[in-house]
Design a protein that fits this description.
Elements: E1 25-32, E2 37-45
Antiparallel strand pairs: 1-2
The protein binds zinc ion.
The site of zinc ion has 8 residues, from loops.
Length: 57
């Protein structure tokens, strides 16, 4: 009886983090002044995955 070789399973892709879409960074709106005038956006670390881009559970 021959033994069946089971093909190695491909590693499952890590789930993408939602807020940053797997990039690990999220755009943050920069506001200044009392009127909270928007002056632009800058990239900030995603607090949901701490920059890894992978969803944690
Ligand atoms: Zn994230």
């Amino acid at each position: 009886m021959a033994t069946k070789k089971t093909p190695p399973r491909p590693a499952p892709a890590p789930p993408k983090c939602g807020p940053c879409n797997g990039t690990g960074e999220v755009a943050r709106t920069v506001r200044v002044g009392r009127n909270r005038r928007t002056v632009g956006q800058q990239a900030g670390i995603c607090l949901a995955c701490f920059g890894t881009g992978e969803a944690t559970d």
